[in-house]
Design brief:
Layout (H helix, E strand, L loop, with lengths): L11 E2 L2 H6 L5 E3 L2 H8 L9 H5 L6 H9 L3 H11 L3 H7 L6 H4 L2 H4 L5 H14 L15 E5 L3 H12 L3 E6 L7 H4 L8 H13 L3 E4 L9 H6 L2 E6 L5 E2 L12 E3 H17 L12 E5 L3 H12 L4 E6 L10 H9 L3 E4 L1 E8 L5 E14 L5 E5 L5 E3 L3 E4 L3 E2 L3 H5 L25 E3 L2 H4 L4 H20 L1
Helix pairs in contact: 2-9, 4-5, 5-9, 6-9, 10-19, 14-15, 15-16
The structure holds iron/sulfur cluster.
Length: about 475
């Protein structure tokens, strides 16, 4: 009988002291031997539940098999064809609730650490540029415009290029990666890692146009006029929400999107020659509202940028936090305090219009709400003032409206999500396709990759019809 190894191969990571010094990546990945040892734990199940658990249904069982058999090129190829961002998803995916959460090894022991194996394969490709991974068909005449250099856009561009179509990506920000670049801090996902994935796409002949805002600098109709035969909209959901409470206009109040974007810009300024952000400074006592991964990212960023005290303020309990367990663990270890069952009521300002405190109220859990989770209810008379000088809202995102406003006939729903046909990814405008967060609302990187990849196939069908 086969010998099962129930425990995962541990991964190297920075110590707390090392990680707080700078914005280096905390998890350091597997060596070749470690990755192989972890791959050897896979049972090669007849029905690979891990793939059911992966939102992109990536060929996990197969790439683990090829890697174990010594065909590392083949392993990288089949994963990369399915997942354009394997180096990124190998770092930021919510594996515990996706592939690894569904792995049968997790029933009795610890699941195969799939994300870490995928990350190893992607990094191996980077350090072995001599590998010939993709075979490209000759270019056809038809061009596809892709709006957004985030996960959905990159996946769509790769998909159409692998079928021979030219792809050009238009993006508003300075760097490629979309939300991965400006919304995920460097200690979780380095811009270098995103750049590596993008370099692979550039080598395929995909063109990137940065600093172009579609809806302002040019419209979708302009793209058709320039000869593009199809347009894919993958602009994400970047309109950060707040709570609509008193004091949100005070100096020192940020959305997590702006806070993380400004911090990233500051960290990467010299390396990428980015403009600095006037007036951006991390406070001494920072409250981050919300408890999702973005909230953890903002809190950990504030600590690294010199805040003396950082608190996560969440109206529900720890058990109900939507964040990944590892993110909470890292956030706690790095010294961030957690105020569970607390809800902000209003932000208080000083005579100069700067944040000087936040009135909050304690909450208790009541009967289940529509999500099935216990509803947080205010505890009467428990109001108190939190001593803070900066407030960061990490309470979700809505889709941007600029493209819908400037594209006649493009239908959006009540929360501004772009309406698409579920099978064809086509919007209400002929030849315009959409996928990812701009359609579904904010979701994970791998969901957007899957949508972009599948929309590419729909575009190919459309062009070949
Ligand atoms: Fe391997 Fe786990 Fe997938 Fe089975 S479910 S094929 S053990 S990774």
């Amino acid at each position: 009988m086969a010998e099962y190894v129930w425990k995962q191969t541990p991964m190297r990571q920075l110590t707390k002291e090392e990680r707080l010094k700078e914005f280096s990546e905390v998890l350091l990945g597997y060596s070749y031997e470690q990755a192989l040892a972890e791959a050897d734990r896979c049972l090669q199940c007849q029905h690979p539940f891990c793939q059911d658990g992966c939102p992109a249904h990536n060929p996990i069982k197969e790439y683990i098999r090829l890697f174990r058999e010594g065909d590392i090129e083949g392993a990288i190829r089949i994963d990369r064809e399915s997942n354009v961002l394997m180096a990124c998803t190998g770092r930021v995916c919510d594996w515990e609730h996706q592939c690894e959460g569904a792995c049968v090894m997790g029933v009795r022991g610890e699941p195969v650490r799939i994300g870490a194996i995928e990350r190893f394969l992607a990094d191996y490709q980077h350090f072995h540029p001599e590998l010939e991974i993709m075979e490209l068909p000759p270019l056809k005449d038809e061009k596809v415009a892709v709006i957004g250099a985030g996960p959905a856009g990159l996946a769509c561009a790769q998909g159409v290029r692998l079928a021979g179509y030219q792809a050009e990506i238009f993006d508003a920000w300075y760097l490629p990666g979309g939300v991965m670049s400006y919304g995920i801090p460097q200690f979780v996902l380095q811009q270098d890692v995103i750049d590596r994935e993008v370099d692979i796409l550039k080598k395929m002949g995909i063109k990137f146009h940065h600093g172009v805002v579609i809806g302002k600098d040019m419209t979708i109709d302009d793209l058709f006029a320039k000869g593009f035969k199809a347009v894919f909209v993958g602009v994400g959901a970047n309109k950060a929400k707040t709570m609509g409470i008193e004091g949100e206009d005070l100096e020192g109040v940020y959305t997590a999107k702006d806070f993380l974007m400004f911090a990233t810009q500051e960290v990467l300024t010299s390396k990428y020659n980015l403009p600095t952000v006037d007036g951006f400074k991390v406070g001494k006592k920072v409250a981050v509202i919300g408890a999702g991964n973005t909230a953890m990212d903002a809190a950990r960023t504030a600590i690294r940028m010199g805040a003396e005290e950082v608190k996560i303020v969440y109206r529900r309990s720890k058990e109900q936090s939507p964040s990944r367990e590892i993110e909470i663990e890292h956030t706690e270890h790095e010294g961030v305090k957690f105020e569970y069952l607390v809800n902000p009521l209003r932000i208080l300002g000083d005579e100069n219009g700067r944040v000087k405190g936040m009135e909050s109220i304690r909450m208790k859990l009541g009967s289940p709400d529509r999500s099935g989770r216990p509803r947080p209810e205010p505890v009467e008379g428990s109001e108190f003032i939190m001593d803070v000088d900066q407030v960061v809202f990490a309470v979700g995102y809505d889709p941007e409206t600029l493209i819908a406003q400037t594209t006649p006939g493009l239908e959006v729903n009540s929360w501004n999500g772009i309406v698409v046909d579920n099978d064809t990814y086509m919007t209400s405008r002929e030849g315009v396709f959409a996928g990812g967060d701009s359609v579904t609302g904010a979701n994970t990187v791998v969901h957007a990759v899957a949508a972009g990849r599948d929309a590419a196939q729909a575009i190919i069908n459309y062009l070949e019809d």
